[in-house]
TrEMBL record:
Residues 89-121 are annotated as: Disordered. The keyword Coiled coil applies. This is SKA complex subunit 1. It holds the Pfam family SKA1. Keywords: Coiled coil. It comes from Plakobranchus ocellatus. Gene3D superfamilies: Ska1 microtubule binding domain-like. GO terms for cellular component: mitotic spindle; outer kinetochore; spindle microtubule. GO terms for biological process: cell division; chromosome segregation; mitotic cell cycle; regulation of microtubule polymerization or depolymerization. One of its GO terms (molecular function) is microtubule binding. The keyword Nucleus does not apply. Belongs to the SKA1 family.
Amino acid sequence: MEGSLAKVAEGYNQRLEVLKNARLMSKAPVDSLAQPARIVDELKVDLANINEIVQEGHQKLKSLEDLKLESAAFLEHLKYVLDNVPSKISQSSNNRKLDVAPKANSEPAKTSAEPSKPTVTQEQSVGCQYLDFLTVDEFQSIPKYMKGRLTYDKINSVIEKLDKVYVEKYKIRRLKKSVLNDLNKKRYEAYRLQETDDTRGVHFIVEQDIADFSSLKLDNVLRNIFTILRHCGLMYELRGGGYIRYGCYSRY
């Protein structure tokens, strides 16, 4: 009998222990899950802050990309400007001479309407006069029938090439013949034959000089540009002896 009661008591004690453990286990998740929930909430707040920072970063990155593109375009523009800086910059002047084209196959008539020859000092006589660049106002004043499809940049590009022709010709012309090679000796003699009393002190070029010292084609486009340069008072012609001499006025 006592053994049976002991077994019953032991059974109850075991059940009580199970109930106690079950009670403890039922309370444990509430306390143990409370802290992870707070952690999850904090993580949500942190993620929201991080997302905001990321969005700001995207905006700054986009601004930097735009700035990079603008900088690249600006650098390209600077490179273009550097590669296309003219050898000289034109200066405006109110004392610009107007050109009166002489009649074909005749010496220039000396009338009051014709501009006088540029005064050339001794220092200038051993150097070279240059054609000045066309200004925007001068380009806009050119009649449409004369300008045609020619652009401002195209005309000034031709002027720059013609300038180099003047330079190369008068490099040879002012040297002593004894220091020249055979080709330049022939050119030197040709230059002397082109000169007359009327061209004394005047720097000019002829079509052969343009062919020798530039890539310009002696076509209708170039002759039209010559007409424009005469119209704007940058160039004039001296005819005679079978030559058309292209002289230039200077603003300086």
